[in-house]
Each structure stands twice: as C-alpha cells, then as structure tokens.
Amino acid sequence: MTSEFQPPYVPLQQLDASLKSTGFALLGAASVAAWLDASADELRSLHGGWDHLPADAYLKDGGRYRSRRHSCFVVQGGRVQQAPHRAHWQPLEYNALHGGMQRWFEPMEPAVVALPVWGRLLTRLGEAASALRGEQPWFVEAHPFRIDTTDGIGRPTPEGAHRDGVDLVAVFMVGRQGIKGGESRVFEANGPGGQRFTLREPWSLLLLDDARVIHESTPIQPLEGDALGWRDTLVVTCRAGGFQGD
Questions:
Q1: DSSP secondary-structure letter at 51?
Q2: What's the half-sphere exposure (Cβ side, CA atoms, 13 Å) at 84?
C-alpha cells in the first residue's frame, strides 16, 4: 500500500518567500481562512456552487467524470472586474490533450460571484501574483471543478504533468467525498526535484509559480465498490498582459 504524504504547509507569513524560493507554497485551511478573512459559513456558501456544475463536453478521452464552470476577471490592486464571458483556450505547448481548441464552458453562477468572499479571494491572489512578478493588472481565469467516479475512475489532470502558461496557479482543495487517490505532485520544470502530497483539508491551498514548476494530480477511485465519490477543487490562474488566446 502506498504511503500518503502530508502537505508541507508553510505559515501564512512565509507565503511570498516560499513561492519565490521553491516555486510553490502550501497553506493549511486555517491560514487560508485568515488570509481571506473568511468565516466557515462564508466558505460553505462559496462551495454551494459546486452542486450545479455542468458536465465537461470536451474530454477527448471520452470520459464523463469531470464537471466544471469557467469565468474570467481582471484584478488590479483592490479592484475586481468580471470580464465578458469567453472561451477557455490553451496552446498545445501547455496542454497536449485539450490545447489548441476553444472550449466554451458555462460561466460561474452570478450568486457565487457576488459573494464578498469571492472578491476577497481574487484580490488576495492578485496580491500574491504581484509579490511574485511585480504590481500590475492580472488576467484571472477561475475554474470550479468536480471530478467524480462515474466511470469507476476520475482523472483530475488527464493531460498529465503540465504547466498552464500563466504566472500564478492556485489550487484550492474544496472537498473530498468517498474517494481514494487524488495525490498532488509538483516537479521542478528544469530540474530533478519534486514533492508529492495529498490535500484533504477543505479550503487548503496549493500555489504554484507556473514558470518554475509543473504539476499534476493522480486519478481518484471510490473508497467502496462502485459507490459514487468526488473531489471538488477551485483552480484560479493569474496571467500578466492578457488572457490566453487574445
């Protein structure tokens, strides 16, 4: 049986330093709540949006295991503005499986976007990106995901280990239900080093300097028989200069 490695969380005050020194940083749930100035009730209300995610119709492996939405924002300083709805696009260089195609997903629900905690979340990520790359506007894409075991196995990253072609990637572990697997793996993009760990705490967070590291998550399976299980995450990317595909 494979051992499960615990996330090497850092104190909140070391977030920016960890990103700069290692290319990634991990925050535990309590640190994330403090960072977002968010109560447990606020985070639960945000997670409510995951119960209404449409199926991903673009999976090239024929799977039915992924549901998602997609919305875009521009974050500058303390100002967050939702951008007109657009396709999600990545070059083949970064996504060999689904790159090079326009994927139109349903936008995030307006009630979720209107929550005050959502604005604070995007503002904090913009601050982290500015600490890493310098103060500037950030072009943000938000992806609420649910990966489930409808097919017996669910693949959080069917494209394999990859970069996203952005500056900062944030992966929030929102919730797990009745599954095993889903290990996160982070590797140096230009070296042999790497880390593996399993995020279990709701609203724990993995932040990645996309220029320095590649990342993936291993498949999930049901804990018991063919019972349905799922893994909910929120992936948010920050990119300088514009959205990919502009």
A1: G
A2: 1
Give the three-state DSSP class for 103: strand
pTM (whole model) above 0.70: yes
Rg, C-alpha atoms of the chain: 17
Joined together, the tokens standing for residue 18 give 């960890």
Residue 11: CB atoms within 10 Å: 11
pLDDT confidence of residue 92: 63
Per residue in 171-229, pLDDT (tens digit) is: 999 999 999 999 999 999 888 889 999 999 999 999 999 999 999 999 999 999 889 99
Alpha carbons 21 and 16: distance in angstroms, whole number: 9
Q: Could you give the CA distance from residue 212 to residue 21 in angstroms, rounded to a whole number?
A: 10
Asked whether the beta carbons of 236 and 141 are under 8 A apart, the reply is: yes
Classify residue 20 as left (phi > 0), alpha (psi -120 to 50) or beta: alpha
Q: Where are the domains of the chain?
A: 12-239
Whether CATH 2.60.120.620 fits 12-239: yes
E strands present in 99-193: 138-148, 168-177, 179-181, 184-188
> Which residues are registered as beta bridge partners of 74?
81, 139
Contact 175, 101 (CB under 8 A): no
- Cα separation, 88 vs 160, in Å, equals 18
Give the residue from 132, 211, 129 showing the smallest Cα distance to 170. Answer: 129
Instruction: Find where tokens 């017996």 sit.
Output: 152
CB under 8 Å to 190, separation ≥6 — which residues? 212
Q: Which two tokens stand for residue 14?
A: 């070391």
Q: Both tokens of residue 103?
A: 């994927």
